[in-house]
Design goal:
binds magnesium ion, alpha/beta, 13 helices, 389 residues, binds threonylcarbamoyladenylate, 32% helix
Amino acid sequence: MDTKIIKIDTKIFDKDVKFYEAALNEAASVVNSGGLVVFPTETVYGLGADACNKEAAKKIYAAKNRPSDNPLIIHISCFEDIYKYAEDVSEDTVKLAKKFCPGPLTFILKKKDTIPYETSGGLDTVGIRIPSNKIAREFIRLSGTAIAAPSANISGRPSPTRFKHVFDDMYGRVDCIIDGGNSLIGLESSIVDMTGSYPVMLRPGAISMEDILEELGIDTDSYEKFIKLSVGSGEKPKAPGMKYRHYAPSTQVNIISGEYEDVFKGVYDLIIESSYKNIGLIICEESREKLSDLLKDNDEMIILSNEEDKLFFEFNKDNCKRKVYAFISGKRNDGGAIASNLFDILRKFDDIEALDEIYSEDIYANDMNMAIKDRLYKASGYNIKYIGR
Ligand code: TXA
Ligand code: MG
């Protein structure tokens, strides 16, 4: 399949939306004739099709290799459109939308017949969100319909947050890709189920359950009943996507958790002790600084590259040569930076040949901590080693 690429300079777009109207109209007409368009959002890139067209929805599942029981989120350009696709929109939903939309928040609501079961994965509910990315909203508006869009990755791979990621996964599989640069947030939207008597978070994102409860004036010390992320054995997950392995590079990821100082020492010991192995690392900026100091004092270590986003080195000991590829997630507490880098880092490991193991420091961010941990832990298959006290 030929894939047309539309490149948008966000600086020009922000000043003059009309500049790209012809190009975005072309993308909209692809969707209107049942085709697939990858488009940028503030969370991750989406693989879009007309949400009301069942044949188009089926094409999404095929392009992603996605199991057909995993429902799609639909994207609209303004809140009023929600009434075209959803039933029983509660006052709480309206209140939350006023505060957080457009933005990285998806509501699960009872669906109307305008949304076919092919889009909703056979469910009577539908996920709806209004992206804050302006290119996305203009593209949706011009299409005149709702756009069904999962993340634009091959199923199981990390969601795409850079144009390169969608190009790698989707070129030749879709009719059009809109290149809007890097995703601002870098993790998928928070999903909140609004179909019950109180809101329940099914996937954490940039908007936390605390934010939501505060907005609704719900006072609580226990968040347990408001958050249903993973499920016990035999229980059917509320967000069907949660039962599938996610975000994983082809090499096993191991998480090292504990007090930060212990974690750093643990990671360093692993580097020194594991023989005959090439290692990938995810570490924070503070660890990069400490590690590069230690390397400087060690004759067996040769630094290959030491930059803002990576520290690569070679380790020669007992006639055994191996490499360590450390990627820097961001400053230890800077959730915004870590979120925007995480999927990019997870994907970069797949470009490295002969990688034997990946270790990641656990995440200790001030914001988005729950969302980042959720993705990182899933990438590791919950392979977490606690060390220290
Ligand atoms: O930020 C995002 O939400 C991105 C961008 C493109 O908007 N989209 C995204 O879609 O992450 P996807 O398909 O990769 O993840 C959607 C998740 C899946 O786990 C799915 O099972 C769940 O949402 N979901 C969708 N509709 C649902 C429904 N009606 N009930 C429960 N879970 C639902
Ligand atoms: Mg996804």
